[in-house]
């Protein structure tokens, strides 16, 4: 047995990763952000100008979309999309229960009803369960490319077409992701991204919508910008019930730098994830999220692992504690599916108390594990350390 396998850090042994080994910090920046920010600062043009336009162009190109409409958060993006598509009171939108709150709360904010469709054993909304959730009120499906893994968009498009539903991608984990060569966000009617601080490209806050639909793009631009008409319209002239969700020049300046770095980071994360996929394969009780070769460029916002307590030999909570002690910041992820949140249980319009999505509940209560993308920017040795920690815990599982 390897020397450092003998005693668990949990019980005072030497951790696989001691304090001398650090993980990449997030967010990341260098001189390019510093210079870009100073340029904006000193230019005196802080508001909705050339930087925002340039970023929108770059990001549209990056995702392979005709249009990119920037805004101030992923949440705002989702709400504005739903409004632009005329979704509101009396309408239902299918969403997964295993996601950030905004996927579902955006639906409530426009007065419509989120209906939860369980995920499959690979963390994404299960297309096979969609049919059963459709009612005459269903207007749209909003799957999440969870962790960066693109949902089976062939299946989602087929079901959307068959039932006349609008397909909206929550691509807030999927910057740079591609499905059969096409960018995330362009695979349905439109898709949206977040640039909040934890996300793979970030300006602290920020969001964007991409679409190939000209008319929808024009409406979205108007809604983000107080309902104004297109560029060139008279100054005091408001066509739509818009809001102010504009991105600042500071945000756009940072995001252009972050986007320029993304291509290389995508490769690093994918290389490191591959090392983990192979390394963890032989360890009973740990199943990494499976890739599909149709997901032709895999983005990683999270690296997700299903944990089987019976096969590994300890509880998930004990695994997390022991892994953390060895210097690996992995977590059990969301502690409950969205429909258990007080906000949903308090609504009269729909009986969320009787929702039951067994796979999402299993992920929350028993089997979900994930760690964030910045760890995947580490070295190959960092990845080998993760595999080593898993082996060490497995070999010593009786002592956990
Ligand atoms: C982050 C996130 C959002 C919301 O984005 P914000 O910019 O934080 O408002 C929506 N959906 C998912 C899946 C997210 O991870």
What's the number of helices?
13
User: Helical percent range?
Assistant: 25-40%
The CATH class of the largest domain, by name, is: Alpha Beta
Which small-molecule ligands are present, each listed once? pyridoxal-5'-phosphate
The structural class is alpha/beta
Note the main sheet.
Answer: 7 strands, mixed
> What order do the helices and strands follow?
HHEHEHEHEHEEEEEHHEEHHHHEH
Number of strands: 12
Strand order of the largest sheet: 1-9-8-5-4-2-3
CATH topology of the largest domain: Aspartate Aminotransferase, domain 2
What does this structure look like?
It contains 13 helices and twelve strands. It is an alpha/beta fold and 400 residues long. The chain folds into two domains: 3-14 and 261-399, Aspartate Aminotransferase, domain 1 (Alpha-Beta Complex); 31-257, 3-Layer(aba) Sandwich (Aspartate Aminotransferase, domain 2). The strands form three sheets. The protein has a seven-stranded mixed β-sheet, with helices on both faces. Strands 10-11-12 form a three-stranded antiparallel β-sheet. A two-stranded antiparallel sheet has the order 6-7. Helix 4 links the parallel strand 2 (92-95) and strand 3. Helix 3 packs across helix 4 (102-109). The longest helix has 33 residues, at 249-281. The chain is globular, with a radius of gyration of 22 Å. Pyridoxal-5'-phosphate binds at residues 73-75, 99-100, 102-103, 144, 170, 172-173, 194, 196, 207.
Quick structural overview:
This protein is α/β, with parallel strands linked by helices and 400 residues long. It has 13 helices and twelve strands. Strand 2 (92-95), helix 4 and strand 3 (113-116) form a beta-alpha-beta unit.
């Amino acid at each position: 047995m390897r020397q450092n396998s003998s005693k668990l850090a949990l019980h005072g042994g030497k951790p696989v990763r001691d304090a001398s080994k650090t993980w990449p910090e997030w967010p990341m920046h260098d001189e390019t952000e510093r210079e870009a920010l100073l340029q904006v600062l000193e230019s005196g043009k802080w508001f909705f100008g050339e930087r925002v336009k340039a970023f929108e162009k770059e990001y549209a190109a990056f995702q392979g979309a005709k249009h990119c409409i920037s805004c101030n958060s992923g949440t705002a993006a989702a709400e504005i999309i739903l409004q632009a598509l005329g979704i509101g009171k009396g309408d239902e939108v299918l969403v997964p229960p295993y996601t950030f709150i905004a996927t579902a709360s955006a639906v409530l904010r426009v007065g419509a009803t989120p209906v939860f469709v369980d995920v499959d054993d690979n963390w994404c909304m299960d297309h096979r369960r969609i049919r059963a959730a459709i009612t005459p009120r269903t207007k749209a499906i909003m799957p999440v490319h969870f962790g960066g893994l693109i949902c089976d968009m062939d299946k989602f498009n087929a079901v959307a077409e068959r039932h006349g539903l609008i397909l909206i991608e929550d691509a807030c984990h999927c910057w740079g992701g591609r499905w059969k060569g096409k960018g995330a966000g362009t695979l349905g009617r439109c898709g949206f991204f977040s640039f909040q601080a934890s996300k793979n490209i970030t300006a602290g806050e920020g969001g964007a919508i991409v679409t190939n639909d000209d008319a929808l793009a024009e409406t979205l631009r108007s809604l983000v910008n107080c309902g104004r008409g297109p560029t060139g319209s008279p100054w005091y002239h408001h066509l739509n019930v818009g809001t102010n969700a504009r991105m600042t020049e500071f945000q756009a300046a940072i995001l252009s730098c972050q986007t320029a770095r993304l291509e290389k980071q995508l490769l690093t994360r994918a290389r490191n994830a591959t090392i983990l996929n192979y390394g963890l394969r032989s360890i009973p009780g740990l199943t990494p999220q499976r890739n599909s070769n149709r997901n032709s460029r895999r983005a990683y916002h999270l690296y997700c692992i299903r944990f089987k307590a019976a096969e590994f030999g300890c509880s998930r909570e004990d695994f997390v504690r022991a892994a953390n002690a060895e210097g690996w910041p992995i977590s059990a992820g969301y502690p409950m599916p969205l429909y258990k949140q007080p906000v949903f249980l308090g609504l009269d319009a729909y009986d969320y108390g009787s929702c039951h999505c067994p796979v999402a509940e299993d992920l929350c209560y028993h089997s979900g594990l994930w760690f964030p993308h910045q760890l995947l920017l580490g070295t190959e040795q960092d990845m080998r350390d993760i595999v080593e920690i898993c082996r060490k815990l497995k070999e010593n599982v009786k002592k956990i």
